[in-house]
Amino acid sequence: MTTEATYDELQAILLARDFRADDRVVQIGANLAAARAGAMLASVGTHPDMRILIGLSVDNLAVAGAVPAVREFSFHARSAFEGEAVMDQGTVFDDTASPDVFFVGGLQVDRRGNVNLLGVPDDAGGWAVRGPGPVGLATMSTNCRGYYILMPAHSPRSFVERVASITALGDRTRRRELGLPGGGARLLLSPLGVFDFDDDGDMRLASVHPGVTVDDVTAATGFPLVIPDDVPETIPPTADELRLLRERIDPEGLLRA
After folding, report:
1. pTM for this one?
2. What is the C-alpha end-to-end distance of the chain, expressed in Å?
3. How far, rounded to the nearest angstrom, does the alpha carbon of residue 222 sit from its chain's CA centroid?
4. Which H/E stretch holds residue 247?
5. Which tens digits make up the pLDDT trace of 204-221?
6. Residue 156's pLDDT is what?
7. What is d(CA 93, CA 243) in angstroms, rounded to the nearest whole number?
8. Residue extents of the structural domains in the chain
9. 241 burial class (0-12, 13-18, 19+ CB within 10 angstroms)?
Protein backbone atom coordinates (compact mmCIF):
# COMPACT_ATOMS: atom_id res chain seq x y z
CA MET A 1 0.00 0.00 0.00
CA THR A 2 1.38 3.39 -0.97
CA THR A 3 1.93 5.77 1.93
CA GLU A 4 1.43 8.86 -0.26
CA ALA A 5 -1.87 10.44 0.70
CA THR A 6 -4.16 12.54 -1.48
CA TYR A 7 -5.15 15.97 -0.22
CA ASP A 8 -8.59 14.68 0.81
CA GLU A 9 -7.00 11.84 2.77
CA LEU A 10 -4.60 14.26 4.44
CA GLN A 11 -7.51 16.53 5.41
CA ALA A 12 -9.40 13.64 6.98
CA ILE A 13 -6.40 12.52 9.01
CA LEU A 14 -5.52 16.05 10.16
CA LEU A 15 -9.09 16.56 11.33
CA ALA A 16 -9.15 13.26 13.22
CA ARG A 17 -5.93 14.24 14.98
CA ASP A 18 -7.18 17.69 16.00
CA PHE A 19 -10.55 16.90 17.56
CA ARG A 20 -10.72 17.84 21.23
CA ALA A 21 -11.15 15.30 24.00
CA ASP A 22 -14.68 16.57 24.74
CA ASP A 23 -15.87 16.73 21.12
CA ARG A 24 -18.87 14.42 21.19
CA VAL A 25 -21.39 15.72 18.62
CA VAL A 26 -20.07 16.33 15.11
CA GLN A 27 -22.31 17.79 12.40
CA ILE A 28 -21.25 17.10 8.82
CA GLY A 29 -22.27 19.67 6.24
CA ALA A 30 -23.32 18.82 2.69
CA ASN A 31 -20.75 17.34 0.31
CA LEU A 32 -17.71 17.36 2.62
CA ALA A 33 -16.46 13.82 2.24
CA ALA A 34 -13.10 14.50 3.90
CA ALA A 35 -14.82 15.92 6.98
CA ARG A 36 -17.10 12.90 7.16
CA ALA A 37 -14.13 10.54 6.85
CA GLY A 38 -12.18 12.46 9.49
CA ALA A 39 -15.04 12.23 11.97
CA MET A 40 -15.50 8.51 11.33
CA LEU A 41 -11.76 7.94 11.63
CA ALA A 42 -11.77 9.60 15.05
CA SER A 43 -14.85 7.67 16.13
CA VAL A 44 -13.22 4.29 15.53
CA GLY A 45 -10.09 5.43 17.34
CA THR A 46 -9.78 8.22 19.87
CA HIS A 47 -13.49 9.13 20.21
CA PRO A 48 -15.53 5.91 20.53
CA ASP A 49 -18.55 7.72 22.00
CA MET A 50 -18.75 10.37 19.27
CA ARG A 51 -22.11 10.93 17.58
CA ILE A 52 -21.83 11.93 13.93
CA LEU A 53 -24.77 13.72 12.32
CA ILE A 54 -24.60 12.94 8.60
CA GLY A 55 -27.37 14.42 6.51
CA LEU A 56 -30.52 13.10 8.15
CA SER A 57 -28.93 10.25 10.06
CA VAL A 58 -27.23 9.91 13.45
CA ASP A 59 -24.29 7.50 13.62
CA ASN A 60 -22.44 6.07 16.60
CA LEU A 61 -19.80 3.72 15.28
CA ALA A 62 -19.15 2.17 18.68
CA VAL A 63 -22.42 0.27 18.28
CA ALA A 64 -22.58 0.15 14.48
CA GLY A 65 -22.39 -3.16 12.69
CA ALA A 66 -20.48 -1.54 9.84
CA VAL A 67 -18.97 1.84 9.07
CA PRO A 68 -21.27 3.92 6.82
CA ALA A 69 -19.83 4.55 3.37
CA VAL A 70 -18.11 7.83 2.53
CA ARG A 71 -20.26 9.21 -0.28
CA GLU A 72 -20.18 12.19 -2.59
CA PHE A 73 -23.02 13.91 -0.71
CA SER A 74 -23.95 13.93 2.96
CA PHE A 75 -27.67 14.12 2.21
CA HIS A 76 -27.68 10.78 0.45
CA ALA A 77 -30.83 8.64 0.62
CA ARG A 78 -28.88 5.53 1.61
CA SER A 79 -27.57 7.28 4.74
CA ALA A 80 -31.06 7.08 6.22
CA PHE A 81 -30.79 3.29 6.37
CA GLU A 82 -27.35 3.20 8.00
CA GLY A 83 -27.63 5.37 11.11
CA GLU A 84 -28.93 4.46 14.52
CA ALA A 85 -31.53 7.24 14.22
CA VAL A 86 -33.01 9.52 11.58
CA MET A 87 -33.81 13.25 11.88
CA ASP A 88 -36.26 15.36 9.91
CA GLN A 89 -35.04 18.43 8.03
CA GLY A 90 -36.11 20.91 10.70
CA THR A 91 -34.24 19.00 13.37
CA VAL A 92 -31.02 19.18 11.39
CA PHE A 93 -30.93 22.99 11.42
CA ASP A 94 -32.83 23.76 14.64
CA ASP A 95 -32.55 21.12 17.35
CA THR A 96 -28.92 20.34 16.40
CA ALA A 97 -27.90 23.96 15.90
CA SER A 98 -25.16 23.77 18.54
CA PRO A 99 -22.94 20.77 17.80
CA ASP A 100 -19.46 20.53 19.22
CA VAL A 101 -17.87 20.49 15.77
CA PHE A 102 -18.89 21.74 12.34
CA PHE A 103 -17.09 22.16 9.00
CA VAL A 104 -17.12 25.11 6.60
CA GLY A 105 -16.11 25.24 2.94
CA GLY A 106 -15.79 28.38 0.88
CA LEU A 107 -15.20 30.08 -2.44
CA GLN A 108 -13.23 32.77 -0.61
CA VAL A 109 -11.65 33.28 2.79
CA ASP A 110 -9.98 36.42 4.10
CA ARG A 111 -7.23 37.24 6.58
CA ARG A 112 -9.74 37.38 9.46
CA GLY A 113 -11.19 33.96 8.72
CA ASN A 114 -14.44 35.18 7.19
CA VAL A 115 -15.76 32.72 4.61
CA ASN A 116 -17.81 33.38 1.48
CA LEU A 117 -19.85 30.54 0.01
CA LEU A 118 -22.43 32.77 -1.70
CA GLY A 119 -20.58 33.86 -4.83
CA VAL A 120 -18.00 36.15 -6.40
CA PRO A 121 -19.52 39.20 -8.12
CA ASP A 122 -18.47 40.49 -11.52
CA ASP A 123 -18.06 44.12 -12.61
CA ALA A 124 -21.53 44.25 -14.17
CA GLY A 125 -23.53 43.64 -11.00
CA GLY A 126 -23.94 39.93 -11.61
CA TRP A 127 -22.00 36.86 -10.59
CA ALA A 128 -18.65 35.78 -11.96
CA VAL A 129 -19.00 32.65 -9.84
CA ARG A 130 -22.17 31.56 -8.05
CA GLY A 131 -21.77 29.31 -5.03
CA PRO A 132 -24.24 26.94 -3.38
CA GLY A 133 -25.18 29.52 -0.76
CA PRO A 134 -25.20 29.66 3.04
CA VAL A 135 -28.01 27.25 3.98
CA GLY A 136 -27.43 26.35 7.64
CA LEU A 137 -23.95 27.88 7.58
CA ALA A 138 -24.70 31.00 9.62
CA THR A 139 -26.52 29.03 12.32
CA MET A 140 -23.90 26.32 12.68
CA SER A 141 -20.82 28.55 12.51
CA THR A 142 -22.38 30.95 15.01
CA ASN A 143 -23.32 28.38 17.64
CA CYS A 144 -21.00 25.37 17.42
CA ARG A 145 -18.13 25.07 19.91
CA GLY A 146 -15.62 25.15 17.07
CA TYR A 147 -15.45 24.66 13.32
CA TYR A 148 -12.87 23.80 10.68
CA ILE A 149 -12.49 25.68 7.39
CA LEU A 150 -11.74 23.33 4.49
CA MET A 151 -10.55 25.14 1.36
CA PRO A 152 -10.37 23.07 -1.86
CA ALA A 153 -7.95 25.50 -3.55
CA HIS A 154 -5.31 28.00 -2.46
CA SER A 155 -4.67 30.99 -4.70
CA PRO A 156 -4.95 34.79 -4.53
CA ARG A 157 -8.46 34.39 -5.96
CA SER A 158 -9.64 32.28 -3.03
CA PHE A 159 -7.47 33.74 -0.22
CA VAL A 160 -8.44 37.40 -0.46
CA GLU A 161 -7.95 40.54 1.62
CA ARG A 162 -11.70 40.86 2.08
CA VAL A 163 -14.42 38.41 1.06
CA ALA A 164 -17.19 39.64 -1.22
CA SER A 165 -19.86 38.31 1.13
CA ILE A 166 -19.72 36.78 4.60
CA THR A 167 -21.55 33.48 5.05
CA ALA A 168 -19.55 32.39 8.11
CA LEU A 169 -18.19 35.11 10.39
CA GLY A 170 -14.71 34.13 11.52
CA ASP A 171 -13.39 37.51 12.68
CA ARG A 172 -12.81 37.01 16.40
CA THR A 173 -13.06 40.71 17.22
CA ARG A 174 -16.40 41.07 15.44
CA ARG A 175 -17.72 37.84 16.97
CA ARG A 176 -16.96 39.19 20.46
CA GLU A 177 -18.61 42.54 19.63
CA LEU A 178 -21.75 40.72 18.51
CA GLY A 179 -21.71 38.35 21.46
CA LEU A 180 -21.76 35.22 19.31
CA PRO A 181 -21.85 32.13 21.54
CA GLY A 182 -19.73 29.67 19.54
CA GLY A 183 -16.00 29.15 19.61
CA GLY A 184 -15.32 30.16 16.02
CA ALA A 185 -12.75 28.74 13.63
CA ARG A 186 -10.16 26.34 15.01
CA LEU A 187 -8.06 25.60 11.94
CA LEU A 188 -8.07 26.19 8.21
CA LEU A 189 -6.80 23.43 5.95
CA SER A 190 -5.69 24.13 2.38
CA PRO A 191 -3.76 22.15 -0.27
CA LEU A 192 -0.64 24.06 0.81
CA GLY A 193 -0.74 23.98 4.59
CA VAL A 194 -2.48 24.28 7.94
CA PHE A 195 -3.46 27.68 9.34
CA ASP A 196 -4.74 29.01 12.64
CA PHE A 197 -5.41 32.52 13.96
CA ASP A 198 -3.22 34.57 16.29
CA ASP A 199 -4.37 36.44 19.40
CA ASP A 200 -5.40 39.42 17.25
CA GLY A 201 -7.47 37.18 14.98
CA ASP A 202 -5.24 37.30 11.90
CA MET A 203 -4.57 34.15 9.88
CA ARG A 204 -1.28 32.49 10.75
CA LEU A 205 0.65 29.78 8.97
CA ALA A 206 0.90 26.79 11.32
CA SER A 207 2.60 24.28 9.00
CA VAL A 208 3.38 23.67 5.34
CA HIS A 209 2.54 20.38 3.66
CA PRO A 210 5.40 18.17 2.43
CA GLY A 211 6.96 19.62 -0.72
CA VAL A 212 5.57 23.12 -0.07
CA THR A 213 7.65 26.11 1.03
CA VAL A 214 6.67 29.21 2.98
CA ASP A 215 7.34 31.24 -0.19
CA ASP A 216 4.86 29.03 -2.08
CA VAL A 217 2.20 29.82 0.51
CA THR A 218 2.80 33.56 0.61
CA ALA A 219 2.80 33.77 -3.20
CA ALA A 220 -0.57 32.02 -3.33
CA THR A 221 -2.19 34.20 -0.65
CA GLY A 222 -3.79 37.55 -1.46
CA PHE A 223 -2.99 39.15 1.90
CA PRO A 224 -0.07 39.25 4.37
CA LEU A 225 -0.08 36.14 6.54
CA VAL A 226 1.32 35.98 10.05
CA ILE A 227 4.48 33.90 9.55
CA PRO A 228 6.21 32.52 12.67
CA ASP A 229 9.99 32.40 12.74
CA ASP A 230 9.94 28.62 12.55
CA VAL A 231 7.22 27.02 10.40
CA PRO A 232 7.20 23.21 10.69
CA GLU A 233 6.25 20.73 8.02
CA THR A 234 2.85 19.11 8.40
CA ILE A 235 3.30 15.67 9.91
CA PRO A 236 2.32 13.31 7.07
CA PRO A 237 -0.09 10.41 7.58
CA THR A 238 1.42 7.31 9.12
CA ALA A 239 1.08 3.94 7.47
CA ASP A 240 -1.34 2.86 10.22
CA GLU A 241 -3.52 5.96 9.78
CA LEU A 242 -3.71 5.43 6.02
CA ARG A 243 -4.42 1.74 6.42
CA LEU A 244 -7.33 2.38 8.80
CA LEU A 245 -8.69 5.15 6.59
CA ARG A 246 -8.49 3.12 3.39
CA GLU A 247 -9.49 -0.29 4.69
CA ARG A 248 -12.27 0.59 7.13
CA ILE A 249 -13.43 4.17 6.49
CA ASP A 250 -13.05 4.61 2.73
CA PRO A 251 -12.57 1.16 1.14
CA GLU A 252 -14.16 2.34 -2.13
CA GLY A 253 -11.49 5.03 -2.51
CA LEU A 254 -13.67 8.13 -2.85
CA LEU A 255 -10.96 10.22 -1.17
CA ARG A 256 -8.39 8.88 -3.62
CA ALA A 257 -10.42 9.67 -6.74
Report:
1. 0.85
2. 16
3. 21
4. none
5. 999 999 999 999 999 999
6. 97
7. 34
8. 7-256
9. buried
